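[job 4471] stage=fold_predict status=RUNNING
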Amino acid sequence: MLSALSAAVVLAGAPPAQVAQAGPLAQRVEAWLSSKGKPLTDYAKSFVRKLAEVAAREGAPMPHVAGIRSPRDQAKAMHNNYLSAQKKGGEAAGRGWVFATYGKGVYAKTVLGHFERIEKGEATFDDWHQYFAAYVKKSRIPSHTNGRAFDVTPRSDAVRKLIDMTIAEGTREKLFKLADFADEKSPPHFHIGLSASH
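[job 4471] inference complete, writing structure tokens
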């Protein structure tokens, strides 16, 4: 059975009359969808609605959808994940998290360089945030800051099955187009990124 928030998420992006009829619950969802920076795009809302539909049909609880962030919050989350990995496994683990998450190209090396300069006292978090905010402003890749990327938890086989079904049905129905998918272990979640267009 869907939770109150999950049921309302199904209404996100619904016709205004339907949202108005749903009352304060739908308004809370719209506030949630618009919180922490930019709102989810229409394609991302379509993904969340389809995920809720699949979960309801399968008799499964609606997974938690999060990760819509301002550039500052996303920059902080990235830095915190790096520090967390480093705390658990040392300097190499911090570097390993960056490369596992962002590949081994120029962007990953730039991110790592910023984090290492912060540690050495050669730069501040604000320096990193300014770089990251400028980067995402011009970037066309799906991002937590442009409403085209988000996280789904819990990281479980049951949720993965719901996501796989959602991707298959939503793609077939041309509701959205998947750009990237990652099964992240630290912290445990599924990352979904959607294309800007079909």
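[job 4471] summary: The mean pLDDT is 80.
[job 4471] exit 0
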